[in-house]
Amino acid sequence: MNWAFGILLFFAGMGLGYLLHWRMKGKGDDNQHLRRELEQARFDLDQQRQEVADYFEQSREMMVQLGQSLDKANRFWNDSAQGMLGDGQVMPLNLNQPQLEGLEEIPPKDYVQGSHGIIGAKDRIANG
Fold it and tell me: Whole-model pTM?
């Protein structure tokens, strides 16, 4: 009788397990829901990638426009400078420098041997 009772409990457990499995699996709705979420996430990711690519393309175009504008401004400034100065008025830099001939060359002060610049030790004691 023990073995008959064991076989009966075995089949009852199998039936109960099948019913629980059938009740828990959800009939495939969960899989379809997860697939829809996955497709939505892929769509959002592709859309984000496209927005980033568009952003960088727009940034590149703006940098090209900025470079062209700077080139145009430089050409304008150079043309304006040439128009203001003319061809013969530009002198080399060395001709515009004052001549420093005949000036006495003063050696630099020695700060190592107790000298303190312009004010000597005697002047500091006298002034306070």
Answer: 0.42
